[in-house]
Amino acid sequence: MSNDNSSSLKAYVDSATGAVQSALGSLTGSTADKAQGEQTRTDAAASHEASHTVGKFGPIAVSPSGGVSQDDPARAEGSWNQTVGSGKEMLGNLIGSQDLKNQGIQQNAAGKGQEAQGQLSDLGNGMGDRVQGALGAGLAGLTGDKEGQAKYQDLHDDGKAKLRSAQKDIEKEAQ
Q1: pLDDT digits (tens, 9 = 90+) for 144-172
Q2: Tag placement on the chain: N or C end, fewer CB within 10 Å?
Q3: What is the mean pLDDT of each run of 10 residues along the chain (175 residues)?
C-alpha cells in the first residue's frame, strides 16, 4: 500500500538534497545543477503536501498511501448532538422557550466534547498504529518476512489515514 512519493521524511530529505544541489550549482556556476536542485526542492514540497492530504467520504478516510480508516463513532455522535443542540437553541429562541434554548446550548456543548474526544482517540490510535507499523515493517524487513512487512506497512498506512483524518477535521474547526 505504501507510496514512497507521499512520505513526509522523504520529502524533508529531498528538500535538503535539493537545497545542497542548488547551492553547489550556484558556487560552481552550473545552471543545470542549480535548476535541478530547485526542481528537487519543488518536487519535495509537493510530496510533503501530498503526504498530509486525506480523502474523506463521510466517516471513512483514505490516505495517498492507500491507508483506510473509519472515524471514531464519538466524532459522528458529537457532530449530530451539535446539530440537534443548535436546532433546539434556534427553536427555543423562535418560540420564546428559555428551557428549550438552554437544553440546546447544553446538547451543543456536550456534542463538541464528544467530537473532541473522538478526534483525540483517532489521533492517538493513528500515531500508535503508524509507529507500530513502521517498527514492525522494519523488523520484518530485516528478517526477510515479506508477508509481515506488508502487514505492518498496511497498519502504518491505515494509522496515517486515521491521523490525517483527525488532523483535517481539527484544522477545519479551527478556521
Answers
A1: 999 999 999 999 999 999 998 998 888 88
A2: C
A3: 50 67 80 78 62 75 86 95 96 96 97 96 95 94 94 94 90 84
DSSP state at residue 6: G
Q: What are the DSSP calls for 14-83, one per residue?
A: HHHHHHHHHHHHHHHT-HHHHHHHHHHHHHHHHHHHHHT--EEETTEEE-TTS-EEE--HHHHHHHHHHH
Residue 118 CA from chain centroid, whole number: 14
Tell me if residue 43 falls in helix, strand or coil: helix
Q: Which amino acid is at 71?
A: D
Query: Which residues touch 171 (CB under 8 Å, ≥6 apart)?
Result: none
30: cell is 552550473
Local structure of residue 29 (DSSP, 8 states): T
